[in-house]
Specification:
Helix content: over 70%
Order of helices and strands: HHHHHH
Distance between the termini: 20 Å
Radius of gyration: 37 Å
Number of helices: 6
Structural class: mainly alpha
Shape: rod-shaped
Length: 272
């Protein structure tokens, strides 16, 4: 299933707002104008080795933040497509063999309707026989007994026909249920993957908090003109950001796994 660009954009926006991705996303860090001026002053005022290290670490940190944003877009896009595909296939599951079930059900209902006058006649004849017996009318008893016996054969044949059709319906439903279970069993791995995604999101969320705290440490160091403290802070930020990227890549791989699972379920369904 392909979704339009407009729907995708709206979906991504809603997913970001309401889908619990706040645990994944963190606003990219940027120095304020004042802090940026102070940072540039440190770079110009310190030795060349430290200056180069500060510049490269800050550039690396910004680059890693952009990579994280790029991964977010890829993750959300794939997730939204997977969600739409899974919803569609789960709907199709309930429709498996629906045509055959409808036809078999109609066969049963039509047979019952067809034979109902016969069943009514049989009940009437049995009532007449009971009345004749109660009246001790031998001639009527003999007559109605013969009628009952003749109709009884037809009734047994009719009930046999209905049982065959009901058995067919039961088998069709059983086969459909087995097919549905096969698809649902395949999709069960999606649930397991969701648990892994949740764990990665939790790790990202806690690491993002450490990033937020560390950016405050960095800003304070920069404002104080402490090049050593600023460099140490930037090195920690790069480390944290790399940890976040590891989790984002994992989440994307989980979504790819979900995509493969849905494709497998779809292929299996088409084979029925």
């Amino acid at each position: 299933m392909r979704i339009s660009r407009y729907v995708l954009i709206v979906g991504i926006s809603l997913f970001l707002i309401f889908g619990g991705v706040s645990s994944i996303l963190a606003a990219p860090f940027e120095f304020t104008v004042t802090a940026k001026t102070a940072f540039e002053k440190i770079i110009k005022g310190t030795d060349s080795t430290t200056s180069i290290a500060l510049t490269s670490r800050y550039a690396e940190f910004q680059k890693l933040q952009q990579e994280a944003i790029d991964w977010d877009v890829k993750i959300v896009t794939l997730h939204y497509n997977n969600e739409a595909e899974e919803k569609a296939i789960r709907k199709k599951i309930t429709e498996i063999d629906s045509t055959r079930i409808t036809a078999a059900t109609a066969e049963v209902n039509n047979a019952k309707k067809k034979y109902q006058p016969l069943f009514d006649l049989y009940e009437t004849q049995k009532t007449q026989l009971r009345i004749a017996k109660a009246a001790r009318n031998k001639s009527l008893t003999t007559f109605f007994n013969a009628q009952v016996e003749i109709t009884k054969i037809a009734v047994q044949s009719a009930k046999g026909d209905i049982r065959v059709k009901e058995a067919t319906l039961k088998e069709v439903k059983k086969t459909a249920s087995m097919k549905m279970k096969q698809i649902r069993d395949i999709l069960e791995t999606v649930v397991a993957t969701a648990a892994k995604t949740k764990a990665s999101k939790s790790t990202i969320s806690s690491t993002n908090k450490r990033v937020t705290t560390e950016t405050k440490v960095l800003t304070n160091a920069v404002k104080k003109g402490d090049a050593t403290a600023a460099l140490s802070s930037l090195m920690r930020l790069v480390l944290y950001q790399n940890e976040i990227l590891v989790q984002k890549r994992s989440i994307y791989s989980y979504e790819q796994s979900v995509q493969s699972t849905i494709a497998k379920a779809s292929a299996r369904m088409k084979s029925f």
